[in-house]
Amino acid sequence: VWQHIPQGPPDAILGVSEAFKKDQSSQKINLGVGAYRTEEGKPLVLNVVKKAEQKIVNDPSENKEYLGITGNPVFNELSAKLAFGENSSVIREKRNATVQALSGTGSLRVGAEFLAQHYPVHTVLLPNPTWANHNKIFPLAGIKDVRKYRYFKPSTKGLDYEGMIEDMQSAPEGSVVVLHACAHNPTGVDPTLEQWRGILKTVQQKHLLPFFDSAYQGFASGDLERDAAAIRLFADAGLELLLAQSYAKNMGLYGERVGAMTVVTKSADVTSRVESQLKQVIRPMFSNPPRHGAAIVVEVLSDPRLYAEWREELKGMAGRIKSMRAQLLQALKDVGAPGTWDHVVNQIGMFSFLGVTKEQVRVMTEKHHVYLTQDGRISMAGLSASKCRYLAEAINDAVRN
Ligand code: LMR
């Protein structure tokens, strides 16, 4: 009965890791998936995570019972505070329905299914380009009209602010607009605070519904508050919005699949009804979320000592990425790669969007065993000092071809 099934395409991001694993070369580098590596190229478990896990293991009251459908309530509360700020009116007025979900993807999917069922405008605007998974999550959740708004300007390798505003202006009234809260994936190009104010104005004029994807809070600048500035600007303006949070990158909890989905409403009464409907989405999808990752997050966010240590570890990770950017730029200059490469240091977050063609990506991978996504994105977090020169030579060779 399965004879007719065609081979599915490799995933745009995780498929790169699969290809990397098959490569036998000792020189291979995986800059595909956004996952932090140490200078030695090893995955990193944060010290605060190890400490939190010890506390959990030693807690005699800990068990393996099911969580409720919306997950760990303390986790939900702390996640909302992390995003909106301790003194946010959203939290004070109980205008946030926050539920635990499966990292960024799972949170986005819960949000998208909720929108498909309860929001009348079935148009979603995504930045061009955006994280590959966004393109699939919304249509599969039942929102068929997915459009692009201009975001990246190849000529400047910066933000196409005017294009972005124009496209939002000409979108159907009330469209959902997906905004990367910070460290835009894949470009590493973020609006300035001034530009965020302009975006907010357009969103208000067109009654757009913002859907923030926050996968890098604290990881972009090393500062949790600064990376939440756009979310807080919109929330403090009294807007209704959606927010998907992930702890994959900022707490290094990738495989624990821990995240949160928030719907901001106008009143506590609406919040309670929205939450009841989020439960209707979650129960038949995955019933209830896993305990362990959320328990770790609760320990780290609620213990002042662990929280302070986490902030330091975040700074350490963000700092290493920054230093990789500087070292790669220097190596590109050293090997005499044609063109300007300042965007490598100007972009922020986990990725650099090199501005290379698909063909150049193919040369980098097939000839030099450097693995990156087809759009020319490299994970700066996967790079180490000892590999910068090799990478610069591969880029130089590819762009000269
Ligand atoms: C990425 O963009 O590489 C990460 O967000 C991992 C993923 O799930 O795609």
Describe the structure.
There is one protein chain. With 401 residues, the protein is of the alpha/beta class. It folds into two domains: 14-45 and 307-400, Aspartate Aminotransferase, domain 1, CATH 3.90.1150; 66-302, Type I PLP-dependent aspartate aminotransferase-like (Major domain) (Aspartate Aminotransferase, domain 2), CATH 3.40.640.10. It is built from 15 helices and 13 strands. It has helices at residues 14-22, 47-58, 73-84, 89-92, 103-118, 134-140, 161-169, 193-205, 229-236, 268-286, 292-302, 304-334, 343-346, 358-368, 388-400; strands at 29-30, 96-101, 123-128, 145-150, 152-153, 158-159, 176-180, 209-214, 241-246, 259-264, 351-353, 370-371, 377-379. The protein has a seven-stranded mixed sheet, with helices on both faces. Helix 2 runs antiparallel to helix 12 and helix 7 packs parallel to helix 8 (193-205). The protein starts with 13 loop residues before the first helix and ends with a helix. The mean pLDDT is 96. The structure holds (2S)-2-hydroxybutanedioic acid (LMR). Residues 13, 33-34, 131, 133, 185 line the site of (2S)-2-hydroxybutanedioic acid (LMR).
Which descriptors apply to this entry?
401 residues, alpha/beta, Aspartate Aminotransferase, domain 1, Aspartate Aminotransferase, domain 2, 2 domains, seven-stranded mixed sheet, two-stranded parallel ribbon, globular, binds (2S)-2-hydroxybutanedioic acid
Roughly what is the average pLDDT, rounded to an integer?
Answer: 96
- Helix proportion of residues, in percent? 40-55%
Widest sheet: strand order? Answer: 2-10-9-8-7-3-4
Number-wise, the strands total 13
Radius of gyration: 21 Å
Strand content: 5-15%
CATH homologous superfamily caption of the largest domain: Type I PLP-dependent aspartate aminotransferase-like (Major domain)
Structural class: alpha/beta
CATH architecture descriptor name of the largest domain:
3-Layer(aba) Sandwich
What coarse outline follows from CA principal-axis ratios? globular
Q: How far apart are the termini?
A: 47 Å
Q: Could you spell the SSE succession in H and E letters?
A: HEHHHEHEHEEEHEHEHEEHHHHEHEEH
Described by strand count, sense and barrel closure, the largest sheet is: 7 strands, mixed
CATH class of the largest domain: Alpha Beta
In the residues, how many domains can be counted? 2
**Are there runs of 5+ residues with pLDDT below 50, and where?**
none
Bound molecules: (2S)-2-hydroxybutanedioic acid
SS summary, helix count = 15
EC number: 2.6.1.1
Protein name: Aspartate aminotransferase
Subunit structure: Homodimer.
Family: Belongs to the class-I pyridoxal-phosphate-dependent aminotransferase family.
